[in-house]
Structures
1.
Amino acid sequence: MTTLNAGAAPAPVYERSAGFWSGVLKKLARDPVAIGAAAVLLALVLIALFAPLITPHDPYQTSLLKRLRPIGFENFLLGTDELGRDLLSRLMLGARLSLFMGIVPVLIAFVLGSAIGILAGYAGGLANTLIMRTIDVLYAFPSVLLAIALSGALGAGIGNALLSLTIVFIPPIARVAESVTTQVRGRDFVEAARASGAGAFTIVRVHVLGNVLGPIFVYATSLIAVSMILASGLSFLGLGVRPPEPEWGLMLNTLRTAIYTQPWVAALPGVMIFITSISFNLLSDSLRSAMDVKN
Amino acid sequence: MIFYLLRRIVYTVPIMLGVAFFCFLLVHISPGDPLVAILPPDASVELQRQLMTLYGFDRSWPEQFFGWLWRALQGDLGTSIATGRPVADEVFRAVGNTLMLACLATLIGFLLGSLFGFVAGYFSNSWVDRAASALSVLGVSVPHYWLGMVMVIVFSAWLGWLPPTGAGPGGSDQWAWDWAHIQYMVLPAVTMSVIPMGIIARTVRALVADILAQEFVVGLKAKGMTDSGIFLHVVKNAAPTALAVMGLQLGYLLGGSILIETVFSWPGTGFLLNSAIFQRDLPLLQGTILVLAMFFVLLNLLVDTLQTAIDPRIQR
């Protein structure tokens, strides 16, 4: 009698049918640009998560004697800022708020914008007209102007900046969601589902969502880079994160006075914003071409 | 064509009304009393009430909105709370400066972007194409306010070639088209041009690659047309879309110039918005946003109209 070893038992191996998403992942895994961008973003997220454990100095510790020291001064690897705080530690901890403020508005706008757009696209008719014309009004503002108008009127602060950015990103996402949904709605399988007696909710859940969320998601990822630049821009203007919290845009603003004394130290927070937004753009581009079935 | 144009104009009217309503709402979503900025803390109730009446904050919402809209249509955007001067005067002075900067930036961005886009599209999938694509990704990813700072560091602090901030010697607002003034425009305009450059390069690259792959190009080649002749055909086919993208980019720059203007202390609408926000001067904020948003809506209308007019392929 052989003992049955659960671990060694040959599990029946089914070749999972190569679905659309596994194909996309395979394509992404073969794209060196996508791998590079994803690695950079992963590193930034890890730094943000573990910032309190790995910062070499206290990011809030000021020192009047060690203000604006150059890169590589003593044990301050990237120098110190205008209040003598260690810049490397602040850049690390700053990743938290900067990434949070860049990503969260797009995430919320993805959920709300998709819901609005799918509702309008599926309902059609008068409801569609009403919803989409309202969205068009917000869409009629250039995004930077809308963000600044809203947070300027609401006042500075993280919550208000998040709210303004979310409102900025809802209209473009809703527009994409509406147009994709309208296309899917006219397809035969939706017609068939309706003929077989499925209710509106079931049709949307089973037949529409699976077909529209992919394209909307890809579009939303392309907005994250814009959102990063805009969110840091609001803080740069003094409309977002308030001192002494570290955030890259705010740090760039307070270091502006140092561009003559320590130019390279002053430019560093912007380099972080740049690296992050480039990585998001490249990853989003790769994702889009991987999802393009024609290739 | 005429029919399409009429429909497009009719469609723009409710959008403009909506935009105006949104600008009106801005004052009402802001927390606190809009008059707080100018009232001394020990102001009497009497004075407070007088100012409320003066600015119209004591009337009902619809009354305030239509009153405000009616006055705005006649060119009266209210009075700045901080300076006491008419908002319209302040805004129109600033719009000129912003427009000047944005037009120059769009022009630079269009010329460079088309150049890169053409080269990349002609030699698609070569190293030139990859370099041009990389450049356009950099252009759309760069935080332009940071790029502005780097420009100042390199060209003002380091090389000393160009002035870092302002719009003329001695901070005067007497603009003149001589080098003494134009040199102040170079850094902000070049910084600003990076975004449209990236976007236009992307658009033109896709257009050119698409056009070159079409059968009529093969036909022209087969007929023995020279490369320069084919080039003219490509330009003719790509121009309407590229020009439309350029027009829209100008609109985005007009609305988005606040960050660049802040970096370079350029006395445009961005600068005005900045001071309106930090002095809590809500009528000024409202008026500036209204004018910029209307500019954008009208520019969109103009771009659509021109595109329909010059591109015979668009049947509407």
2.
Amino acid sequence: MAIWIEEDAKVLVQGITGKQGMFHASKMQEYGTNLVGGVTPGKGGQEVLGVPVFNSMIDAIKETDADATVIYVPPPFAGEAIIEAANAFQTIKGKGVIVCITEGIPTLDMVNAVAYVANRKNIRLIGPNCPGIITPGETGGAKLGIMPGHIHAKGRIGIVSKSGTLTYEAVAQTMSIDEGQSTCIGIGGDPVNGTGFIECLEAFENDPQTEAIVMIGEIGGTAEEEASAWAKENCTKPIVGFVAGATAPPGKRMGHAGAIISGGKGTADEKFAAFKAAGIACAKDPSELGQVLLESLKKAGLR
Amino acid sequence: MNIHEYQGKALLKSSGVPVLEGVHCTTVEEALAAYDTLNSKVVAVKSQIHAGGRGKGIIYHPETKDEIMQGGVKIAFSKDEVNTYAKNILGNLLVTIQTGEEGKIVNNLYVEAGCDISHEYYLALLVDREQKSVLVMASTEGGVDIEEVAHNTPEKIHKIVVDPNCGLLGFQKRDLGVSLGLSGKALKSFYNMLGNMYEMFVSKDCAMIEINPLVKTKQDDIIALDSKISFDENAEFRHKDWNDLRDLSEEEDVEIRAKETGLSYVKLDGNIGCLVNGAGLAMATMDVIKLYGGEPANFLDVGGGADEEQVKTAFSIILEDTNVKGILVNIFGGIMRCDIIARGVIGATQSLGLDVPLVVRLAGTNVEDGKAILSASDLNIHTAEDLADGAKKIVALIGGGE
């Protein structure tokens, strides 16, 4: 088990003939991802990286029976690419996972795309503006995104984070105490996105492979606070947390569109306090995540 | 991206939202001519800066810092008063609760006709992160600090969530108007105004429209008396006209240059410059510097796929800040290979002549090659094992911390 993406999941890439799409699709293949095809409107019938290219998501899913898609389409077209994927998965399979890597999608495009996906049961959107999702296998695994595959190993720690490179940092920290990962998810740093912290925590809680969770938040919004409240009531597995942005000034956008303290709300202090109130073990420095996780595992009798 | 009140009002007007007649001026002469054109007994002389709190701000002389006048928005009852206020404001420094101590030089004025106000309301449209939808917020308590209203009397704030599948519906506009106590002509005026404002919010890719106050006149008209509008920068590609609305003097010069090279930079007050890949890791790097007794000089995210040239630009931006006494580079290579970063760092330090201590922490793809390149160079570069180690080292090297 793992969450949402099994090791052998059949994966499509939207935007596979673009520079970004082709580069990352090849890295996904190198890692061992079961890439079954790609989609670029107008380029159907070609072959790229040894897999067929289709004109539409409908064609691609019909032909390949894909379980998931990864979107590397440029920002002006990415919102629509999400909707196309959701429609195709819903129509043909009744389910599917959409991972959108694209950064810089207009917020109102995402409002529409997220509403479209929300109306379709069993369609899951991860991202946008995120590193993606990875389920490491014994050999290879399923890498749906831009994370460096080689730093991961199969294991029992679930990782969820708003940030990309900070997720890699968390992965390296689990490895430093000889722990691998069940699934790692970057939910992205945009103000309006698909899957949130709570859905990830719930899935990890129900996943037999996952025995502990690392949750990395950042300033802006109240998703961390809501996730903490949910975890306090519903989570039995140990959680270790960190929040980035304690030194960020108010009113300034810190790289991610969503990482902004506005009206005095969304500070790191509030989020750390919510984590602590929910019994989440906090690291005040990401380089400590490994040690804090180790202590939590020991406390839970898992080491 | 923020725009000025006078620009916002032009947009509102063209979208069918009632505003008062007004004229944008950059000189005292223009302000006096505007007074004549408007032909209104009373006019408002309004400083145009992007920060809020203008009415309660204070105008200072830009060099001597002597106080010139209380208030950046003045009501003038004669041409003489327009003259006085325009002279006092233009070219001088306006300090408000939102500008910080350094304030903003006022280069633009808006001279606006007056009206007979019977009540002031608050109205805002924004994208709500939790609802993942456009939210309309209104209150009978206008013209005051809305954060305070929300805190002290939350029941006086009325909210409507717009379902993206339906848009803003008629009953929602009516209900909101009624909850503000409007009826008859005023309710109808509000209904039409709100519909037009929502259309504008969507078609112009706004991040926020805030009208504080929205007023009801004695004639039962609904008018936007102020306007604070910002756009979603991600949508810039489909709004070519934004370029003309952008006031570069309101933005940090160096932040603009960083953006042009694909870097994300925010200047801070400390003395340790940082160069990091990824927004989350960049924030965490600042946090850890502070944790070990230092103060970060900036936020700088070089992104996922920076090349040697971008690394060099990043260094030059950091070094422009004369407060910088040391630099911490923190890279977790994913797509980005550590050996490329190491070469970029060496190239940048050689061409820019680095004379402050530099600590480099590399992890991820090709980390061994990257470290070998750094240690083979005869430059004064310190390497660090992890983020904490890097932060401790740079803090120690500049003689700060515990």
